[in-house]
Amino acid sequence: MRYLVWALRIVLFLLVLLFALKNTDPVTVRFFGDYVFAGVPLIVVLLLAFFVGALFAWLVSIPTRVRKTREVSRLKGEVDRLNRDVADTRQSLNALKAEELRLRSTVPASGSALQTPVRETAVGL
């Protein structure tokens, strides 16, 4: 996907460049406040407008990129916390199994009520 985006950017740039090369006549550029630039090649005006627009689009995208970066960091922290919880739960389960084995080995073989098998339920493991 990244390569497709870059390919589209290059195609767009080339189209603008070719359009600008076909329009090299001198023009007069007027700004607010009676600022006038006379005899500026149209190619310069077009390329400058293109680059200013690209810069503006990049600047506008900054808040979204920052927000996504923060969200990714938050989600990575949550994944780490959940992985620690899973490891702790497995460790507790192993400790309980070891304790069950220890208790079963100390119970006499007679028909005691403690010998009923413990039913294991796995919740999400």
Automatic annotation (TrEMBL):
| InterPro entries reported in the protein's UniProt record | LapA_dom (IPR010445)
Q: Which GO terms describe its cellular component?
A: plasma membrane
The protein's UniProt keywords, in alphabetical order, are: Cell membrane, Coiled coil, Membrane, Transmembrane, Transmembrane helix
Q: Where are the transmembrane segments?
A: 36-60
Which Pfam families does this chain map to?
LapA_dom
Residue ranges annotated for the Lipopolysaccharide assembly protein A domain, each copy included? 22-86
What superkingdom does the record give? Bacteria
Has keyword Nucleotide-binding?
A: no
The chain's coiled-coil residues are 65-99
Provide the protein name.
Membrane protein
Provenance organism: Advenella kashmirensis W13003
